[in-house]
Predict the structure of UPF0386 protein D1012_01755.
Amino acid sequence: MNISRLEQRALHVLALGGLILHEREHGSKVTSVTCVTREGMILSDFDLTIFNRLRRKRLIESHSGNPYRISKRGRISVRAQLDNQGA
């Protein structure tokens, strides 16, 4: 599967325990998204187009209106990255 660098970055954040907060317009269409890391930091280059690409590829999922998280398919697709936290 062809996954861009920005999509990989978002998947890596989600794989480490992050989530995607979303807002809906009148209960149907997602209008705004925010990718939040496990520590509470916001991923600045994450926008609605990347969100839609990840959702279309079924790399993220939401259950019962909860925040979006990485799916099993997303965990398999994410490439390993060096974790920048010291040892």
